[in-house]
UniProtKB/TrEMBL annotation:
It comes from Lacimicrobium alkaliphilum. Signal peptide: none annotated. Pfam families: TerB. Residues 27-142 form the Co-chaperone DjlA N-terminal domain. InterPro entries: DjlA_N, TerB-like. This is Co-chaperone DjlA N-terminal domain-containing protein. The lineage of its organism: Bacteria, Pseudomonadati, Pseudomonadota, Gammaproteobacteria, Alteromonadales.
Length: 151
């Protein structure tokens, strides 16, 4: 599943083969982000725009490349049986600080439309569990994002 998508991304995002590990991590992270914005069964423009800007910033890619990554990760998310293959890559290649950044980004995406759907919270909880993040970190990230929204 990831191999086919990685090949497509290499062709379309013009990544070099030596960047395979980074490309796989980009894709895995984008799929997790996609799962959150799809959780409430509404593809909100605010969520999509925020995801695009996150991908541009986090992975140093162009806006066009981010749009292509969103499109391909959305397709991958629709066909994925579970999140394990994606979270396994994140666990293998990210340290605790990077995983916490991903968690905070997930919360930002969930709140992008000014409404936290229970399905969004549930998927973030599942992802946090699969990333071996403690519940306290799950709550701290949520509160941090809420505080930033209130300011």
């Amino acid at each position: 599943m990831i191999t086919k998508l990685k090949s497509w991304l290499q062709d379309n995002l013009k990544q070099q083969p030596e960047n395979d590990n980074a490309l796989e991590l980009d894709l895995a992270t984008a799929v997790l982000y996609c799962e959150v914005i799809r959780a409430d069964n509404e593809l909100d423009k605010q969520e999509q725009d925020l995801m695009q800007s996150m991908l541009v910033s986090q992975f140093q890619i162009s806006e066009q490349q981010a749009r292509e990554l969103i499109h391909s990760s959305g397709d991958e998310a629709k066909h994925a049986a579970d999140l394990v293959s994606f979270t396994r890559l994140v666990n293998e290649r990210c340290d605790a600080q990077q995983k916490n950044l991903i968690l905070e980004n997930l919360w930002q995406l969930a709140y992008a439309d000014d409404h936290l759907d229970p399905h969004e919270e549930h998927i973030i909880r599942r992802i946090a569990d699969l990333l071996y993040l403690p519940h306290s970190q799950f709550i701290q990230a949520k509160l941090k994002v809420q505080e930033n929204l209130d300011s």
